[in-house]
């Protein structure tokens, strides 16, 4: 997969925390940040899908009825 360069500006304490966390995991800082972004997006996706399933579970029959009359 192609990589795109993105520059981040962090305050020194956040930058140091990122360096230490990446070092602890034996990965580069950019890989650590990429993992954080992916994890955040996966969590949002899971939350959205769970909410969508709740809507379907609660209103699926109504949606089917409405679609049947359209």
Describe the structure.
- With 70 residues, this protein is mainly α.
- 79% of the residues lie in helices and 0% in strands.
- It has two helices and no strands.
- The mean pLDDT is 92.
Please outline the helices and strands:
Layout: H1 12-25, H2 29-69
**Fraction of residues in β-strands:** under 5%
Q: Classify the helix fraction into a percent range.
A: over 70%
Q: Major beta sheet, specifics?
A: none
Give the assembly state of these chains.
Answer: single chain
- The arrangement of helices and strands along the chain is HH
Q: First CA to last CA: what distance?
A: 44 Å
* Number of E strands: 0
Q: How would you sum up the global shape?
A: elongated
Mean of pLDDT: 92
Could you list the spans in which at least 5 consecutive residues all have pLDDT below 50? none
Q: What class do helices, strands and sheet pairing give?
A: mainly alpha
Quickly count the helices: 2
Which value, in Å, is the CA radius of gyration? 21 Å
Structure summarized in a few sentences:
This protein is mainly α.
């Amino acid at each position: 997969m192609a990589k795109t360069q993105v520059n981040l500006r962090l305050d020194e304490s956040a930058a140091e925390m990122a360096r230490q966390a990446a070092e602890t995991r034996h990965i580069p800082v950019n890989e650590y940040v990429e993992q954080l972004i992916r994890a955040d997006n996966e969590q949002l996706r899971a939350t959205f899908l769970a909410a969508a399933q709740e809507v379907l579970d609660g209103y699926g029959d109504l949606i089917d009825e409405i679609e049947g009359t359209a």
